[in-house]
Amino acid sequence: MSATSDSASEKAHIEHKESIVNDADQYETEGQTVDPKFAIHVRRKIDKRLIPILAALYCISLIDRTNISVARLAGMAKDLKLTVGERYSIISCIFFVPYIIFELPSNLIIRKVGCRNQLSTIVILWGGVMTGMAFCKTWQQLAVCRVLLGVLEAGFFPGCVFLIATWYKRYEQSRRFAWFYLASMCISGFSQIIGYGMSLLAGRGGLNGWQWIFLLFGIITIALGILSIFLIVDFPDKAKFLTPEEKAYAIQRVQEDRGDAIPDEMSLAKIGAHMCDFKLWAFAMCFLCSTTASYAFAYFLPVILQGGGYSTKNSLLLSAPPYVTAALYTAISAHFSDRTRQRATFIGGSALLCMVGLLIMAFTKPLGVRYFGSFLTIAGCQANVPAVIAYQNNNILSHSKRSVASALTIGGGGIGGIMASLVYRQVDYPKYIPGLGATIGCQGMIILLLVLLSMHFRRCNKRADEGTYVIEGNPRFRYTI
Fold first, then answer.
1. pLDDT tens-digit map of 407-426
2. pLDDT at 189
3. pLDDT in tens, 64-85
4. Contacts (Cβ under 8 Å, ≥6 apart) of 179
5. How confident is the model at residue 133, as a pLDDT?
6. Distance between CA atoms of residues 295 and 433, nearest Å
7. Which one of 13, 208, 311, 350 is most buried, counting C-beta atoms within 10 A?
8. % of the chain exceeding 70 in pLDDT
9. CATH of the domain at 367
10. Burial call 272-286: b when 16+ CB within 10 Å, e when fewer
11. HSE-CB for 270 with a 13 A CA cutoff
């Protein structure tokens, strides 16, 4: 929905802020208004305090929600009878139902509760759930634990995205989201190997291999959660790790870039207005289509490789290399996306790369060639996770809207997880052709949405340049295409 539908109170709030300069000019001239060394020092200080701990926590989050694929191959499928019907798909997708439902409420209260309090608490709690999963005796008990895991993780990823976006200028965000996601991608890619190593403890303490996987990852999660109490930082206006001068500059640079460094008040009317903005749903759909592929291969790549003829050990070991390639591709793509200030072109290119990989996996017979296709598929879909988040955050203003948009987008990712769990059916094992076809369709949907959004954004920017339209309540704001 256009900015003309924004509430009058929100416009008044924006208008009373400091004078905003054009982003392109400010981005190039930053450092001329302050000591360049000071500017670099502040940015690096923010990077070091903000990104590493969030990346580490998101890494363990990804591992905890997807390590059931390793546990399945390590004996869980036999012990809990997960090969009966669609039990494995149910266990995989049931996590996302509460994950989607509780994302928006969690994001709406994070400013009042505080980032450190909310994020560290839920990490410790979901670590406890992971530990409890090691002692499940039936698949129904495991399903209950997956539901609890979804409830707790619902407030984490969208909260991290919201927090990171408030600290950086628009054309710094793609690289920061990529850094945040890269560490988790690399380590979670190797989680298959780590999980396999843990499974070798089978028989010790009376536990099977899959139980050791859940137990050890649960303990690691709790330990990281306790550490995060001392390391997670809050929003810029509440940050305590910066000196008063550094804090003022951190807020000023975001204010000059897009004019929303100062938090606006949250209200039901604003939430309703934000949720009527069609582009937020378009971003959520792009994220849904990206995560359908990323979750599908997190859950099913080892299974597909094993079904193609690889041993359990080799299936797990071979699951890691595609993520290393994806990390390199994501870093390069994010760098040039920020440098050229283009989003749709890079997202569309990655969707096309993913589509090519999926076609190779679906319609070629040699297992080695299909494995090569997984490299292209994982690189394309994984690169688009941080890219779509940056695209969304570049094209909205205000803390309240950013909070709603982050929850909707990540919620779309949760629906992608459900789709991935359900379209890769046990009856289609081991090639999962219908699932691969559905994932190909998702990449086509991304490209179509990018075309429509780009046309809309260009038209709005042109009207704004002519002075006949105001974007997001800010006369100087322009959409990033």
1. 999 999 989 988 988 888 87
2. 67
3. 887 888 898 889 998 998 888 8
4. 47, 51, 55
5. 94
6. 16
7. 350
8. 93
9. 1.20.1250.20
10. ebbbebebbbbbbbb
11. 20
Does 470 fall in a domain?
A: no
Residues in the chain: 481
Distance CA 221, CA 123 (A): 7
CA dihedral 160→116→262→1, nearest 10 degrees, is 30
Question: Is position 12 within any domain?
Answer: no
How many structural domains is the chain composed of? 1
Q: What is the structure's pLDDT at 194? A: 85
Give the structural domain span for 454: 35-260+268-465
CA 81-85-88 angle, to 5 degrees, is: 60
Q: Is 474 helix (H, G, I), strand (E, B) or coil?
A: strand
28 within some domain:
no
% of the chain beyond a pLDDT of 90:
62
Closest CA relative to residue 360, chosen from 424, 323, 330, 368: 368
Q: Which residue's structure tokens are 């897009």?
A: 258
* The token pair that represents 407 in the structure block: 């929850």
Residue 124's contacts (CB-CB under 8 Å, 6 or more residues apart) are 221, 222, 225, 226
**pLDDT mean over 352-369:** 93
Query: Is 401 part of a structural domain of the chain?
Result: yes
Provide the Cα torsion 236, 331, 413, 144; round to 10°: -90
* Cβ atoms of residues 386 and 174 within 8 Å: yes
Helix (H) or strand (E) holding 361, with range, is helix 344-363
pLDDT of residue 31 exceeding 60: no
